[in-house]
Amino acid sequence: PTAPKNFPIETLLIESTYGGRVREDFDVSLKKFEQDLARDIKKYNTIVQACFSLDRLQKILFYTIDMQKRGLIPNNIPILVDSKMGAEYINPYLNEAKKMLREASHPSVPDQLAVNTKNLENFIDYLDPKNKNYEVISTETRAGILGELDGKKKIILTASWMAEGGPVVEYFKRFADDEKSVFYFPGFLVPGTRGHAIAAERPEWKEKIVTVEGKTFEIRAKMEQKSGFSGHGDERDLLKYLQSTNLKRDAHILVVHGDTKSSSIALKHTLERKDFPQIVHVPDLEEIYTVNFDK
């Protein structure tokens, strides 16, 4: 997005999740994801995709079903959604997609501004519960359904919580020591969390012995972090946004929502190297910053 040009900005807060990093193009990440999933479903029985409940789960669900529709993975493999919040937010996403489709189809919309209507149509078709492309399971039905599918191939999308809590812990206890299982973590994993310990991008960081609820597991399942699906902008996107703003020369830029020792400070240094004249500050935790609107 770009910022409105019709008013000057005195104080701007900008996130820094990917400060100091430029990610590969999404199409490249999606291609890798599809190749990995198509390969792994042939070799393993269970694939657990531990997603953030909002946006990430719906996105991964769409691309997984799309792979079945295109014949990249067998269409008889059940896709299970085990996330109460993630399942509840499928309908709001469907409603927004329908709204976008109506707007994109309006004759007043120039061709160059129209979204990819085919993707929207597929999203609505694939995620509509009545089309039965996936099954929603719950705490009450989980044991019975997994029992029926024991030893059979299945793809499960569940809430992530970076493997610290939620239903993914139940799948961890059930499949972490199973050599025929795979866990995907399509998203950021904070250092210090269980998810980062078992699925960090660098293999030398991965731990093989993990304790969950007092029980020690030797990890035999394949654990992988998947990049490219984040809704956060990388450093290139953040710079583009800042350059689109009408920042006053004496404005303050507060760099937030990042690691104050790495990504946030990296973005701060980039802005200083790029000769942004504004004051760039990385606030400390619980720091109070006063904005003066009386100028």
Overall average residue pLDDT: 89
The proportion of residues forming helix, as a percent range, comes to 25-40%
Distance between the termini: 28 Å
Spatially, the strands of the biggest sheet line up as 4-3-5-2-6-9
Biggest sheet, in brief?
6 strands, parallel
Elements, N to C (H/E)? EHEHEHHHEHEHEHEEEHEHE
DSSP helical segment count: 10
> Can you count the beta strands?
11
Strand content: 15-25%
Radius of gyration from CA coordinates: 22 Å
Catalogue the unreliable spans: none
Architecture blueprint of SSEs:
Layout: E1 9-15, H1 26-43, E2 46-51, H2 56-69, E3 79-82, H3 84-88, H4 90-104, H5 117-127, E4 135-136, H6 142-148, E5 154-159, H7 167-175, E6 181-185, H8 194-199, E7 209-212, E8 215-218, E9 222-225, H9 235-244, E10 247-256, H10 263-273, E11 279-281
Parallel strand pairs: 1-10, 2-5, 2-6, 3-4, 3-5, 6-9, 10-11
Antiparallel strand pairs: 7-8
Helix pairs in contact: 2-5, 4-5
